[in-house]
Recover the amino acids of this structure.
């Protein structure tokens, strides 16, 4: 996943001695490394060892117009900014984007931890766990997740949760379009001491690690 866009361009060459113009996608992988090496502490990269007991569990969900998520003591909900809506992305992309927003919001407090995200989208779960996909936007998302994992030294894996079992995150993703959600969700939030956190539009921007 660190050089997937570089490899995609190289696969277009029929022979090794052929020349090719480096496109914007190729440059994004180079830029990823430039950003990462600038902040890399020289001590550790990404730990690829698996774990059976996550130290933090969170859940996210997305619909076509917004997303939401919650962890132990906080939750968020947001309508997608216009620069996301204008791309008319499929739901698989939006689900992975919701995970990225959660990682950006809570990444600093999860430094060095093993994380599990509960998500009801099987494609997003598979892409995150395998680190492989052919969709350009999902590849961009993987690069962002990789950068955040390296920056905050956490590990993240996803588990698939059926939609009916992910109702809290689903409610948050539809907060802006569901009046009953706005009246029903606060009660359990108060009971479990959940507090709402704001989501700046900048958190939805990809390929911009700083």
């Amino acid at each position: 996943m660190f050089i997937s866009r570089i490899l995609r361009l190289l696969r277009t060459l029929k022979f090794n001695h052929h020349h090719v113009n480096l496109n914007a996608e190729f440059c994004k992988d180079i830029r990823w490394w430039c950003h990462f090496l600038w902040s890399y502490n020289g001590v550790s990269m990404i730990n690829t060892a698996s774990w059976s007991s996550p130290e933090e569990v969170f859940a996210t969900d997305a619909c076509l117009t917004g997303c939401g998520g919650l962890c132990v003591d906080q939750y968020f909900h947001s309508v997608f900014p216009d620069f996301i809506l204008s791309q008319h992305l499929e739901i698989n992309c939006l689900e992975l984007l919701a995970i990225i927003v959660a990682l950006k919001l809570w990444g600093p407090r999860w430094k060095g931890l093993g994380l599990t995200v509960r998500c009801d989208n099987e494609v997003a779960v598979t892409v995150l766990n395998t680190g492989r996909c052919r969709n350009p936007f999902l590849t961009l998302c993987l690069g962002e997740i990789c950068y955040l994992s390296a920056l905050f030294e956490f590990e993240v894996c996803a588990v698939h949760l059926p939609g009916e079992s992910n109702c809290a995150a689903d409610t948050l993703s539809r907060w802006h379009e569901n009046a009953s959600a706005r009246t029903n969700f606060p009660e359990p939030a108060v009971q479990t001491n959940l507090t709402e956190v704001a989501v700046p539009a900048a958190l939805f921007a990809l390929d911009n690690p700083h």
Observations:
- Residues 136-152 form the longest helix (17 residues).
- Residues 59 and 70 are 6 Å apart (CA to CA).
- The chain is about 40% helix and 15% strand.
